[in-house]
Design a protein that fits this description.
Strand 2 and strand 3 form a beta hairpin. This protein is of the alpha/beta class. A six-stranded mixed sheet has the order 2-3-1-4-5-6, with helices on both faces. The chain is globular and about 70 Å long. The longest helix is centred in the C-terminal third of the chain and has 34 residues.
Amino acid sequence: MANVTEEQDLKALYNSSGLGAVIQQLQSDLGKSERITLHIAVTGESGTGKSTLVNAVQGIGDGEPGAAPTGETRMEPTMYQYPNKDMVKIWDLPGIGTPNFQASDYLERIKFERYDFFSILSVTRFTENDLFLAKEIQQRKKTFYFVRSKIDQDLESDKRREKSRYDENKTLEKLRNASVESLKKGGIESPQVFLMSGRNLEKFDFEKLQEVLEGDLPALKRRAFLLSLSNITSSIIEKKKEVKMGEIWKVALVSAAVAALPIVGLFNGFNISRLVHWLTSCRTHFGLDDHSLRKMAESAGKTREEIKSAVKSTFGTEVSEKNVEKGLEEIENKEHVIYRFLKYVPFLGAAFSAKISYTSSSTLLETAVWEMAEDSKRVLKKTFPLSD
């Protein structure tokens, strides 16, 4: 639902400028959330696993079409975009301190102001150049995170060395503490280090980094980040569901406001079109579109049909005007018969029409989001049976 400030602002707008202005404002808010772009910078020396991490976050494998090439030295900042999602752009940056990118002018060369936050990667230890970069970013009031990458390789090495004495949790704690202490000695106050593996993104600290980012990013950028994530854990799916549930009141209120306008024929076409657009974006965010299902199938060595069999809901299977119209009609048929009669009476029925529209639209969307989130969890289980 709307928070108190949003509700007060809309009431004031209605009192000063009327219903049309409220509709315009709500549509603007919804459009703004869809147009926001988050720019993520990933930097580190050559061989730190930047490209593999960039690909993993996008949900694509090394060597696949659109993937960042591995084993190459970057000569310029290179942008990669999430498949089917233009809200997030990931930039694979050249390493600092190379002959072409000296530390002294590095931030200017990479166009520092473009990025919302920086991930500084290292495999074994963070270098003097990494520390220099972190301090420069901090001075310019932007956010950065230290990522110790390829952590699965460290664990394998320790496992071979320790044999029967091997304890994964103790090894992870030792690696994290060693990195933190090294950064403190280098002059970084209260450093946070996230242990990650591009080969197993769902393991280790990826979820912890995600939670920190949620707290650090502004609301609209946080929304963009969450919705762009691959559905690799049920926790991510739940967070996406929470985001989409929080938007429903605006979509339903636009429907109600348009229904209250005494313009014959305006409501039906506008409402159906708006709901189809919103539900289609939901389906993509939950990874239920054909492209996402195909990628999930390929990653698990299964057919798309096998993965798609986990999708049970109406809108998880297909979003169409016909499905939306049918869903609204079924909900409205449950309303009192007098409401359904009065909504066709000009002016007298406007309030009733608005009430029915808000109720039916919000009910339809809430049910659809809940069911698509459950579909997404079943797809995850079907793809990776041992997932959470």
